[in-house]
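User: what does the whole thing look like in 3D?
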Amino acid sequence: MNESPSTPSGASPLSGNPFVVESPEKLAPEQTVALFVKDYTRLETVRQRRHTFVWGSRGSGKSMMLRFLEPQCQAIAEGSHDAVFRQRDPFLAVYCPCKEGHFNKSELELLDSETAAILSEHLLNISIAYNVITCLHQQFPTDYFELAECSKLVAAAARLFDPASIAGSARDAKEAADPKDGPLTWLEHVLSAENRKVSNFLRERCLKGGRASYKGATSGYHDFLLPFLKLIGGLGRLANASVYILVDDADRLTKLQQSIVNNWIANRDQATLCVKVSAQPESYKTFLTPRGGLIEQPHDYSEVDVEELYTTRKTDYSKKIALISRRRLDLSDVPTKDIETFLPASESEERLFEQVKEETAKEWETHKRQDKSDYVYRYAKARLFQKLKARKIDKSYAGFQNIVDLSSGIVREFLEPCYLMFDTLVAQGKEPSEIAEIPVELQNRVISKYSKDLLIDRIEDIKKDLPTPASSLPDKLRTLVESLGLVFYNLLHDPESRQPRLFSFSITGPVTGELAEVLDLGVRYRFFLSPTSQGGKSGGGQDPLYILNRRLCPAYKLDPSGFEGRLTISPKLLRIACEDPKRFVRLRLKEDSDSGQLTLFEDDHDSAEAIP
Amino acid sequence: MRMSIDEFRASGGLPSIVEGQPDDLLLVAYSFEPRSSAIVRCLSESYEANLGIIYHNEEILNLDEAAPPDSSYDELRYGIADKCRVVLPAQGSLFRPGIQLESFKKLFSRRGFDRESVRTITLDATSFNRETLLILLGLIEFAFPRARIRVFYVSPVTYGDWLSAGFTQVRNVVGLAGLQVPGRKTLLMVLYGYEHQRALKAIEEYEPAKVLLGFGGTPTEIEFLKRNLEELDKVQKKLVLSQQDVADFEFPADSISHCTQRLEEIIKPYLDSFNIVVAPMSTKLSTIATYLVARKHPQIQVAYCVPGEYNIQSYSEGAKTVFTEELTLS
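Assistant: Here's the predicted 3D structure for the full assembly of 942 residues, as structure tokens:
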């Protein structure tokens, strides 16, 4: 076999490219602790004894945060296991990933709903129990728990099942491990045997039909999961810790399985069991329990949106990325440890910007419309874009802050272009120890391609992913993005524009049918960040706000740092935006011009020129 | 055994498994490809079967009376009708595997069709979609464990520029969910053909810690090797950013037994340390080999990537070579 170069388990992942994106699953605890940056993550909320949902896209750092809570990482961070359990409200966090195909098995979809519910719950329970036992077994020193105490625990845990239904599994387990010498290993084998029974039954039931009979145990929340976790928390050295079940990627559970997790949350037994669910918000399909109860925030659970930091406190996100980068550069052979030095911005553009700021301050003197610093902040960047356009110079997106802005709140989207830049230099024959910075020209080249890839590749991906491949939705979405890119471009490059740095939009009325589908598709594939109801001056209140993915900025020559205001669009104009960008731009800018908000809209010639 | 279709026909074509006795079951599938009827056209003068089943997917063919007649399907139907005492349709779906599952279960529970009486099955695997083929093997294993199964596969002269597009979901094949040990990392083995997007999607969805990329080093036709290698290159280039631990290997795509042996050899070192998922996307022969390996090691999950659409107009052209092998599943 031809092996590609890979990271050996346990070795530093950063001996090569410091921006490598490794799955947290592959990182050793030491690496997780070394790479994880606690600041600006809302980790403290997740650590609390409350059920919690952690929302975020893939690559936003959810799994890394959960893995950091595991006992081995906590022991490294706090100095020892004992120090961890001496803290107030101690917890034992057990990582339970929901990987594709583990729980959402095709066979469950073919069973009657009652059988599927019983088996799903049992499957979840025994998998969690297995993960808990493995955690005690593998994440603590061998003699950390007394053998007698473990034997007692295991015996009590086995009694939670119906003795007759567990007998076969217990017998099988005895052949593999002695319950007296290795009680935890024995229980692992019992749970594995139960897992096998579920698996065999699912196969037989689907292929043989009603003739298949289930020979294993079943388990529920009150008769197994809760008492089992009480036994675990009761282990002397855990000091009555609450067991935190870290259900990672819960969007991979079936709707029925998600309702079972919701049921655990609805029970509010946080002193024994806290559920920390991580998922992509659009894929968590229900907040109902199997009996139809609704779990609600804040009564039943807390929420942490790992991307919220980006949309609400932009400077904190930037600081977070700086800390992550610093940590990575420290662990690497790269001589530069300061990320701003490592990713320099274009010097000539910075000089020009300083000059533009002075000119903008002078401009303020002529009308003194608002606070001087506000005025300069609002208009200087736009004047820079206008000046660059006049001089026919391409905008540079090089520099740490630009790349942070372009990443739109996803840590991975900052790391990936940096990885590609570094990789290019290595491919040119440079050793990591010789790379003191990424040249501006290379940064721009990679960023530009990374931006265009989003437009081209992702639209193609959508076309392939849709159940109806001939659907016009992807093309409508592409046209909508072009329309928005174009209108924002015009606003930014118009010297008379009062809102040059718009980057968000809201719809001033109900959107239904195909238009709603286009918007949903845009959110699902991250052309727009999830809509938030932040209210607005026009449209009469709580219109959802959509923020364009800033990774698109280089493709449309836009300012990635723009955060202010919103472009309001009527449903009628939205339809035009999905069909004809030039017409949309003309009409939308005319609307503002007529209402006096803007004084100019570009004619067809300029609009056409604006298309990058 | 491999033979050109012309030689195969010239040698007298396809006889029943036991000379002088009808096969108990003949299974064929309808598709939009010309090769889907090649085996039926090669049935020998003396060939007979007690029951002939023609499978089709509801998204490809509508058998409602109101639908326009399909001449290719009729050719298949009439070709079999001459040789089988009873001919029955089996309907399935590309998107809802429960349909074919129920359809076959019903057909296999016919009076007189039991585990003892069905001993000879001829299966033309050419045009079954992979998921249905794998489900069918599972059903046969349960229903007729003592049967000798003779598998046929016909390779085309050429494939179209694209075979399928789109991706609706990835799921485990019914009956091949495997056994996952919580906490273990995932190893994904992809036997890919010409559909690198589907391979990439499987990798994206499973997020494996290790990927084994298998390409058909001995394809059914030597002309297909260049394209296999090009597809490998496309997948590898796309995996640069995802940082998976990737290794590639060759497998014989033209033989069930050799492929089974090779897959086992590759997978063996990982059986006790990873949760293993295999996604067969190459020939039907290698798909059957995947079934055999997964049954031998029931912890293996077999995955199927559901495409959005098939290149119905020009998926493949012609029928070139016939491959045949015999199996027992018990």
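In plain terms: Chain B has two domains: 2-158+316-327, 164-310. The CA atoms of residues 15 and 47 of chain B lie 5 Å apart.
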